[in-house]
């Protein structure tokens, strides 16, 4: 049986949107925040109309509230019809009240003093997909609503939608309001294939697909200052990103794989599946995509590909990010990687084959300093 997945990854640059005032200021080509928000959502909807993705991963998403109240919080992204919007905020002005950072945002964007902000990653997920919490052992054809009703009868599905994401912090320590100490995370979404629509097939064994939405650190000095300083900063940046990737590999990927190899024990006890669960599952498939902030020639790139993450972008000569120096697209920092679990990219006892292709959408309107990345993935499952 052949299953197709279409994904889009896009760093939308929401942090700069916060610094745009209601009328023209600074060097932005947009007259106001509302104009940029409108153009960004128009472009996002056009990408969705054109490619019909199953999942969209977004980096640098922002939410905001003019009066600081949680119930009045709004998002830069308007969820298109038939998609769930799931966010994983990492930095916010309440839990990370660094005065200089948020004062700068308020002054440039002319926000009221009471305004509150947060920034992080987000997913847009098609409503007909079978999405469950990361540790769920859901059978094929079991919806999240079924799962929730069994474990928490009467619970509001909209409230518990946020439990569909797991957000793993890649850094610890104090935040000083700058990019170098800004917390970073890997947001994890769990798809179970075949999905509900495909559950009439002969395949009853679930394939767990984990989508990793990633935005790694780039130090300020890697882009600014004399060349010698940038070279030294790049070495330090490599160490930071390597450490962040090791956290993803050891604390997310290998931990989940070991849990499956060990038979899915829970708190030291053997798992006894309920009517909606099964322990008879394919080895999981990992899809890691986002803004990695390293080049194809870097040590970090070699580090990730040495761990069986396969870069599926054949057009490695096409830049994905705009340079701050000349406003031209000169950098390659956005990727889509596949990792079939336990083995390399070939079918070595996995029970399925996977292949994919990704490329930047260079015809997208320039509402961000990154191109969106489109990925088409084909999975052949043995029936």
Textual characterization of the structure:
The strands form three sheets. Strands 1, 2, 3, 4, 5, 15 and 16 form a seven-stranded mixed beta sheet that branches. Strands 6, 7, 8, 9, 10, 11 and 14 form a seven-stranded mixed beta sheet that branches. The protein has seven helices and 16 strands. The model is unreliable at 342-348 (pLDDT under 50). The chain is an alpha+beta fold and 383 residues long. It has a single domain, classed as 4-Layer Sandwich (Deoxyribonuclease I, Chain A). It is globular.
* Average of the residue pLDDT scores: 86
Task: Output the CATH topology.
Answer: Deoxyribonuclease I, Chain A
CATH architecture descriptor name: 4-Layer Sandwich
Low-confidence stretches: 342-348
Query: Could you say how many structural domains there are in total?
Result: 1
Count of helical stretches: 7
Indicate the percent of residues in helices. 10-25%
> In percent, how much strand structure appears in the residues?
25-35%
Radius of gyration: 21 Å
Biggest sheet descriptor:
7 strands, mixed
What is the name of the CATH superfamily? Endonuclease/exonuclease/phosphatase
Order of helices and strands: EHHEEEHEEHHEEEHEHEEEEEE
The chain-level structural class is: alpha+beta
Distance between the termini: 7 Å
| Shape category | globular
- The protein's oligomeric status is single chain
């Amino acid at each position: 049986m052949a299953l197709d997945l279409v994904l889009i990854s896009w760093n939308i640059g929401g942090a700069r949107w916060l610094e745009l005032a209601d009328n023209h200021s600074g060097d932005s080509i947009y007259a106001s925040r509302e104009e940029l928000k409108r153009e960004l959502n128009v472009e996002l909807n056009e990408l969705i109309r054109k490619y019909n993705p199953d999942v969209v991963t977004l980096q640098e998403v922002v939410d905001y509230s003019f009066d600081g109240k949680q119930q009045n919080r709004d998002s830069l992204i308007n969820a298109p019809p038939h998609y769930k919007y799931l966010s994983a905020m990492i930095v916010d002005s309440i839990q990370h009240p660094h005065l200089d950072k948020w004062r700068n945002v308020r002054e440039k964007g002319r926000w009221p003093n009471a305004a509150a902000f947060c920034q992080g990653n987000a997913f847009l997920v098609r409503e007909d997909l079978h999405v469950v919490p990361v540790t769920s052992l859901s059978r094929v054809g079991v919806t999240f609503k079924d799962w929730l009703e069994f474990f928490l009868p009467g619970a509001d599905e909209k409230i518990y939608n946020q439990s569909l994401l797991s957000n793993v912090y890649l850094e610890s320590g104090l935040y000083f309001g700058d990019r170098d100490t800004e917390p970073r995370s890997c947001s994890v979404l769990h798809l179970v294939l075949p999905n509900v629509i495909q559950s009439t097939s002969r395949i009853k064994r679930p394939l767990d697909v984990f989508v990793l939405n990633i935005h790694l650190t780039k130090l300020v000095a890697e882009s600014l200052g004399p060349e010698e300083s940038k070279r030294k900063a790049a070495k330090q940046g490599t160490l930071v990103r390597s450490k962040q990737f090791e956290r993803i590999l050891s604390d997310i990927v290998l931990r989940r794989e070991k849990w499956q190899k060990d038979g899915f024990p829970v708190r030291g006890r053997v798992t006894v599946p309920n009517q909606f669960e099964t322990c008879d599952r394919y080895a999981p498939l990992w899809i890691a995509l986002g803004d990695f902030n390293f080049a194809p020639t870097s040590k970090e790139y070699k580090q990730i590909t040495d761990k069986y993450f396969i870069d599926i972008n054949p057009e490695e000569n096409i830049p994905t990010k705009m340079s701050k120096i000349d406003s031209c697209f000169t950098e390659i920092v956005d990727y889509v990687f596949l990792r079939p679990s336990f083995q390399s990219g070939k079918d070595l006892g996995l029970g399925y084959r996977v292949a994919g292709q990704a490329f930047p959408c260079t015809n997208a309107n320039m509402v961000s300093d990154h191109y969106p990345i489109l990925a088409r993935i084909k999975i052949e499952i043995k029936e």
